[in-house]
Amino acid sequence: MSLSLDSYIPELVRDKISPKGYETLAKVKKFVEEECIPADEVYFKQLSNDPTKRWTEVPPIIEDLKAKARKLGLWNMFLAGYKDGPGFTNLEYGLMAQFLGRSHVAPEATNTNAPDTGNMELFAKYANEEQRAKWLVPLLNGEIRSAFLMTEKGISSSNALNISLKAEKTSQGREIVLNGTKWFASGAGDPRTSVWLVMAKTTPESENPYKRHSVIVIDAKKALKTGNAKIIRPLHVFGFDDAPHGHCEVQFNNLKVPFDLLDKEGEGFTLIQSRLGPASNREIFGKLFITKELFINDVAERRIELERIKLLVLEAALKIDLVGSKKAKKEISIAKIDAPRTVGKIIDWAIQVYGAEGVSQDTPLTKLFMSARMLRIADGPDEAHLNQLGKAEAKKSKDINELYSKIYAKTKRLSKI
Amino acid sequence: MSLSLDSYIPELVRDKISPKGYETLAKVKKFVEEECIPADEVYFKQLSNDPTKRWTEVPPIIEDLKAKARKLGLWNMFLAGYKDGPGFTNLEYGLMAQFLGRSHVAPEATNTNAPDTGNMELFAKYANEEQRAKWLVPLLNGEIRSAFLMTEKGISSSNALNISLKAEKTSQGREIVLNGTKWFASGAGDPRTSVWLVMAKTTPESENPYKRHSVIVIDAKKALKTGNAKIIRPLHVFGFDDAPHGHCEVQFNNLKVPFDLLDKEGEGFTLIQSRLGPASNREIFGKLFITKELFINDVAERRIELERIKLLVLEAALKIDLVGSKKAKKEISIAKIDAPRTVGKIIDWAIQVYGAEGVSQDTPLTKLFMSARMLRIADGPDEAHLNQLGKAEAKKSKDINELYSKIYAKTKRLSKI
Amino acid sequence: MSLSLDSYIPELVRDKISPKGYETLAKVKKFVEEECIPADEVYFKQLSNDPTKRWTEVPPIIEDLKAKARKLGLWNMFLAGYKDGPGFTNLEYGLMAQFLGRSHVAPEATNTNAPDTGNMELFAKYANEEQRAKWLVPLLNGEIRSAFLMTEKGISSSNALNISLKAEKTSQGREIVLNGTKWFASGAGDPRTSVWLVMAKTTPESENPYKRHSVIVIDAKKALKTGNAKIIRPLHVFGFDDAPHGHCEVQFNNLKVPFDLLDKEGEGFTLIQSRLGPASNREIFGKLFITKELFINDVAERRIELERIKLLVLEAALKIDLVGSKKAKKEISIAKIDAPRTVGKIIDWAIQVYGAEGVSQDTPLTKLFMSARMLRIADGPDEAHLNQLGKAEAKKSKDINELYSKIYAKTKRLSKI
Amino acid sequence: MSLSLDSYIPELVRDKISPKGYETLAKVKKFVEEECIPADEVYFKQLSNDPTKRWTEVPPIIEDLKAKARKLGLWNMFLAGYKDGPGFTNLEYGLMAQFLGRSHVAPEATNTNAPDTGNMELFAKYANEEQRAKWLVPLLNGEIRSAFLMTEKGISSSNALNISLKAEKTSQGREIVLNGTKWFASGAGDPRTSVWLVMAKTTPESENPYKRHSVIVIDAKKALKTGNAKIIRPLHVFGFDDAPHGHCEVQFNNLKVPFDLLDKEGEGFTLIQSRLGPASNREIFGKLFITKELFINDVAERRIELERIKLLVLEAALKIDLVGSKKAKKEISIAKIDAPRTVGKIIDWAIQVYGAEGVSQDTPLTKLFMSARMLRIADGPDEAHLNQLGKAEAKKSKDINELYSKIYAKTKRLSKI
Question: The domain spanning residue B244 has which CATH number?
């Protein structure tokens, strides 16, 4: 028996859920538990290990699940506040997401998977009739998939102002020519992906820096056929390629496409803001971090951590040299516990400094992270070392108690004087 | 201008506040900001520094505030769900407490101060008519104060089962004789405290260990007059005596009082549960902590922390010996940052192990904590040392960049082979 | 220019390094910086992406590096205290390891890579003449590689007492028959691996549970040829297969091998102790963790973390429902910062509970970890959200200052009365 | 029996201790354990509770201990590298400090107590013959005590550049007139304090801001007699007055003293640097913290912490309203664990922002800290709540296991298709 639905609903929101919302929530829970979680392992088995097929064949179980979900009315629940959506609130969807998040396949099975959710919201809000018919409708039906191409390498990707992909209108203004590279384009690897939303600098001449970018709507399959757009490679995230979805590097080499924008020219920044939420206006860090007070302090903390680890390890090494490893038990335990976790913490920080690049195969950071993490288990887990060290420490208690008995006796004598 | 009331109310609860609740909330905010916070400093000035007067005279400003609060209807808001209360919910009171907690005098000014709140709740729930008239009514009127005597030294105070204060009924069962000591009796130092609720072992013969205790209602002023009950001393908490309220040690030496219980004999445990909430059923730790897995691990972590601090300090000392303190800047900074905060963390843990005793003047822990905490400021604040160390580290970046330029060049050459 | 060697040597150990040690340390630093780090990227490029070739072809650059290292005398530095070694101390090797650890290829290039280091130490300490000649000598020469097969699935691998691989001697005692499965056998995937050290239960009849295991020396290539030993698959660690080295699952199905033990029968436990250090004597956790005090507390902390995240997310969702996402900026920022890092922390804990299984592809934990980690970057890095939220908070300071000006004025008036 | 001396000495430093150092270390350990720790309680008992006598009478036990220590050669061990000292190294003294730090009285008993240690070092380094004879010799003999008056209220005290105490030379330059206030002058409350070192702005006209200050040597007792120097009050640190030592506020009102400087005029900054170590060159924070990136982030983190605590508390309050406190056990536990520790953490941060003022009685922060800290114990310790909550969570495991049995069964069925 699974836990009751009510145990997942905080008291504070209970009266804010509509009867339909509650009923659907119960269905979501049941669907995830009975259909999706059992399908997760099957999905990964169906996913090919062949480096090419991984990106051309979608595990068939997903379509079965989509059919079931749609029949149950578990479809597009994310689209709150739009007439195109099924009419739930964000709050209700937030509660459903508790369950959807438990299964790898559940979001796609219910057409509530990133990045399509964000893209559908954009289309619902900004698309013209033609765009709605061509892209939003099949997306809402789960027939095609989409990708948003924003991030560019070496710049702080989350600040749209930095985005520099060139998009020059042809003389008549009916077409536009793209040159440059995007990366971490999530979903761009999927064989079903039919539409790209590409953030590009279409209007560099605008005085207002927030009015220089537009979001271009591109027919992905056509573009790839020309050979002027190429998916270079999937980026890995901690070693995972996330196939068939993928986080891809996409290159544009004189790609000519119709001048088809989402919303008006120069409105790219506003669209991005509404898609990504409030975080998209920061300055670059990474390259220049040395001048930033926050990082200066972080760097100092890292130095402290490194120095103390180094000394603990060397103390253990010296002790082994002098008395052998048996008698250096305490020192070895201390080094084995503290070194991998400290190193792991430092690498995690470094990943954060590097941003997307940090989690990809383009730096060795994820490999280093994995090695340090593994050491917390491989060489006897932290907990085993801690337990052993703690017990050795606790054995001193007899001596300490004796010492303090003497001390108290003396205190008593002194107090009488 | 102060911040708007609405900014303090989470969206999730907004529709759960009654109009009266909202109106009172606004009044509480205004009262606290305009009357109570300005009075805090005055209150402490009016509090005598004389070791005796501190406990016999209450700062007069408190009665002015009480009169104002009562007029505004800001009175007993904590008493939710009882006919004796003003009719707010716990949720509404929870929101009011945001403001009341900002001022030292606000809770007492609105008759919502501990420990009287908990005691009034007990009376409201369990008192007979006589007890209600004699104690609850004046407590609700803010005319008298009360104390709950539960904790005993050297045992885990939060487990009522451990409580051992002897209370023997006289032959006719009309009176009861108390022998033993209670401590950390909050409010027992206040000159206005008129009633004690004393948790005592009245029925040791009961087979059920949860039915051996009762809560005895004692007229505090009468008891003190007999000389058989004595307030030995106020316990300090981090050096503060919290006068005139106080956390007191109270000694009973053949104190004979009427057999007047709150609820029935043997119900002490149940009453305590309802007063303290769910935490009161734990086993002792402290004395026997060495056998507990949780503490074993904690002890190991402390050992690691101590060893690394020791090595960092000795590295700095040796460096000073060898090259003088100017050139040992980095090592000194590291030791100065890491030693006091590590020591502070260890002492904080030790306080937790010792419980109430740990925060009192009966162990040196609070003095040690204060010294360590002071060092994080006195000798140049952590932040200054961190900033300096970080800047020194950052200066290495030029060399590191040069090294990596060479490395990349070589990688390129190797890749071509 | 790289940083000076001296800046890597703590003052406390400077006088404990021999002239030869210091000279070699300088060579190690130079070799790592000039030869190994530049080769890292080349190594991974040379490593085939073909699922089979990854495990049959070793990147050729490694042999170039080995030749160079050996010429420089940078070889087997780990082997401290044995006549077979080059005569450094553990302390000196500890300092060298600072540099070796910076490059993926450096340990193998200098024949100081795990798990061969530990295996060579075992051979150096316990091998008979024949074993030394056959395995230790080529290992020390870097001609072959080795694997230690200890861990078994579903049991707490770090407690050798739990190890249950069956190894029955044939009637004459000249041979031994193995049945069962080992996993996380590091190095077992390498095409050069020629010898396995297998921890097995050879003597279940022994009364002393610490005398039931032995370490069997097996010719790996021969064993694989019989078909009675099979490498089932490489385990992944955070998605990495670590080819060509590998952490493998190895199955024995009536594998008959010569009765060739390292040290005597029944001494397996002692050998393991000396190989793994002091951590190998713990009880299982994982399966039964619910009864352990330490985990009970951890579980409680996780519950607290989950509840608070849930409420923060729902507060943001409701606010979006009511006032739109622009005005819910603060609530969205809070949820975006706190959710992924909290979830990441919880998953990291879960990995630790599951041990080796937790980092492998047999649980979804590493995938979940990666998703949560990515979110701390993908959706606007934590730092950007924090900065924005902090600035919004700081804007309140004007109102707060005004409020406190009024408060101080009133305090002054009250103090005069 | 106490723990062996050797267990306190890291392997890394063992060969760096001279025979005399080792012997003295043993004496220090014995002296602290047998004489000083037992005397600590006696010292505090001898210290008067009378608000005046606390500052005029020194507990007599201290002179007994000083006599004993001196006889044992345990005297001035801190003074490393000066001919006036006993000839230990900083490293040896660092090891001795491990023991001295265990007892409140040990540093003073061995004449190694702050702030006299720092002051003696300054005299040893910079004093002229007259100053040496008059102040250094009796300080080294433990006959008098000293104070260093540096910190000034409302400015960042650790940056000497901010120091503004006026000190105007009289026309002939033989005397100097001081006007202004110093605070946190440690040791200034002690009846034995005979000399003040006062950092003052003597040379505001200097172009180099680092050459505007000097350290004036003042006969403290004479100065106080004139009435033009006054000790206004002892500052408290977490409620402690640290009598008879004290951290005092000292006011100068046209105090005329001889023009007697330590080192030359304008050298104050250099002297301070050498006394305080590398931290003394930071900019103010506190007042202006809103503009600092580091604090902006900290403020954001505090906001997150406050919001989540608020929601957890309100969730518990609402649950109590709806189903009573018994059924709201889980929610109450969560709030009781998480609220006090979060609040404590926030206050600790606030103290750090305020610096010295933050630990004194001039802000309510220490009182607030104490209340929050007490709550982690008073209302059932964190650990008891955690244990109970964890056990309740663990009870769900049966349901979860059943759910996953079903899930695995389904996965198996699906895999076969």
Answer: 2.40.110.10
Query: Based on the structure, what is the number of domains in chain A?
Result: 3
pTM given for the model: 0.89
Give the list of residues 6+ apart from residue A291 with CB closer than 8 angstroms, or none. none
Instruction: Indicate whether A214 belongs to any domain.
Output: yes
**Cβ neighbours of A388 in C, within 8 Å:** 278-279, 281-282
Regarding whether C299 and C263 lie in a shared domain, the answer is no
Which of C60, C89, C113 represents a domain boundary (last residue)? C113
Asked if pLDDT for residue D156 goes beyond 70, the answer is no
Q: Cβ contacts (< 8 Å) between B15 and chain A: which residues?
A: 15-16
Residue C32 distance to chain D (closest CA, Å): 27
Contact B3 C45 (CB under 8 A): no
Same domain? D15 vs D101 = yes
Q: Which residues of C touch D388 (CB under 8 A)?
A: 300
Tell me the C-alpha distance between D289 and D269, whole Å.
Answer: 25
Segment A321-374, tens digit of pLDDT: 999 988 999 999 999 999 999 999 999 999 988 888 888 888 889 999 988 998
Residues sharing a CB contact under 8 Å with residue A333, sequence separation 6 or more, in sequence order: A385, A386, A388, A389, B300, C277, C278, C279
B2: which chain C residues are within 8 Å (Cβ-Cβ)?
399-400, 402-403
Domain co-membership, D230 together with D318: no
Nearest to A42 among D1, D34, D411 (CB): D411
Q: Which range marks the domain in which residue A222 is found?
A: 145-276
D272 and D149 within one domain: yes
Residue of B nearest to C413 (CA): B38
Q: Are B73 and B96 found together in one domain?
A: yes
Instruction: Compute the Cα dihedral for D237, D240, D244, D248 and give only its sign.
Output: positive
Helices and strands, counts by H and E, chain B: 16, 8
Residues of chain B with Cβ-Cβ distance to C406 below 8 Å are 34
Cα–Cα dist A246/A51, whole Å: 12
- For residue A178, what are the CA distances in angstroms to A255, A322, B262? 5, 68, 83
pLDDT tens, position by position, D300-352: 999 999 999 999 999 999 999 999 988 999 999 999 999 999 999 999 999 98
Does B152 share its domain with B88? no
Q: Tell me if C123 is assigned to some domain.
A: no
Residue C125 lies in a domain: no
B264 falls within a domain: yes
**Interchain pair A37, D294: CB under 8 A:** no
Query: Are the Cβ atoms of D293 and A297 closer than 8 angstroms?
Result: no
Tally the residues of chain A.
417
Please indicate, yes or no, whether residues D170 and D198 belong to a single structural domain of this protein: yes
Mean pLDDT by runs of 10 across the 417 residues of chain C is: 86 94 97 95 92 93 98 97 94 95 96 96 96 98 96 71 88 93 93 97 94 96 97 90 94 97 93 65 39 81 94 93 90 92 94 87 90 84 83 85 89 86
Domain boundary among D70, D96, D113: D113
Taking an 8 Å cut-off on Cβ atoms, the answer to whether B403 and C1 are in contact is yes
Interface B-D: count of C-beta contacts within 8 A: 212
Interface test with B, best of A393, A396, A401 (most B CBs within 10 A): A393
D317 and B90 within 8 Å at the Cβ level: the answer is: yes
Closest CA to A4 of D147, D396, D415, B120: D396
Class of residue D4 by CB neighbours under 10 A (exposed 0-12, middle 13-18, buried 19+): exposed
What CATH number has the domain bearing residue D363? 1.20.140.10
Same domain, B376 and B296: yes
- What are residue D148's DSSP bridge partners? D197
What is the average per-residue pLDDT within B156-178?
Answer: 84
- D-chain CB neighbours of B332 within 8 Å are 277-278
Predicted complex ipTM: 0.88
List the single residue in C with minimal CA-CA distance to A316. Answer: C91
